[in-house]
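Handout, page 2. Input:
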Amino acid sequence: MTRLSNIPISTVMTANEGFRQIWCKNTADFLSFTKAVTPQIEIAKTTEAAPLRVQKENFFCASCLPWVHFSAITHAEFSFGSAVPTLTWGKLKDGKIPVACKFNHAFVDGLHASRFFMQLESLFADPDSLWREHPVEGR
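Output:
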């Protein structure tokens, strides 16, 4: 097994709800890791969003969607047409409708996908609201 000297950690959300990832030196224990990475996290929170710059293949990406419960996720594909979002729903059963979306991470972050699902859950919880006018942000 290869031991990595530098590892990326999960994405850090910036103040303007963009995202950054940071590199951290591998450490012998969690306490040392926490001491090393905490200042980097705080700095990343105050910077502009930017993609992770990768120069080698010794990394992995970790994601967390703490805003929404889900049962499956598929990550972005790098091919023509993969930018087109897809939405699929299934049969109503036991008061639940399964809904699946496929977003390309180059265009949609987990925060925004989570907001979509939270809005969808809100509308499903109050189906009559679908017939009322909803204000559109930015208009």
